[in-house]
Amino acid sequence: MKNSQHRHRQLPPTEGRTAHDQRETASGASPLRVVPTAHDATGDDAVPAWVKRRVLLLNATFEPLTALPMRRAVVLLVCGKADVVHDDPEGPFIRSAGFSVQVPSVIRLRTFVRVPYRARVPMTRAALMHRDRFRCAYCGSKAETVDHVVPRSRGGGHSWENCVACCASCNHRKADKLLSEIGWTLRAQLVPPKGPHWRLLATTKELDPSWLAYLGEGAA
Fold this sequence. Notes:
alpha+beta
């Protein structure tokens, strides 16, 4: 009986390769490389600003769904599940052997995702500021805080119909008084916002200008 000879394939040296690169090579995937721009020259230990940015994800119907972390957005692009709608002209290019894309600001799913219907948009500070356009509901100056029209100490609720964006001066002057007691009026009717984009606005205060075309009138 002949002795079988085992042949072992020699692996390439791993010196200079990160554990992440080794895992990607083993799985057959081509590791991604970031080609930096002048804006990223902030030192080896600094995290580039584009890494911390979020990306607007649109449904296949261009309906806004959510704001993704940059890493998740790039994964969707690499896997062919989404396409770039708008990129960041000042961002770097992300490249691999068969893939190249500039850092995106808006991407769109290739297939439609059904979103469960929810009747009422949750009220958050960010959404309230967007509804009132970051202006004081009493004087129209820049809003800095949130005020309860009917103070909570006098039975007012924490709801769309009783909360407004407010400047610090008006908030201090109004205190726990009713509007009828000080002769003030509201600049607009207080109504809950409607529309799918408001769910995104409820969790996102800073908006990329390229998102506005997809977020409706309330985001402007």
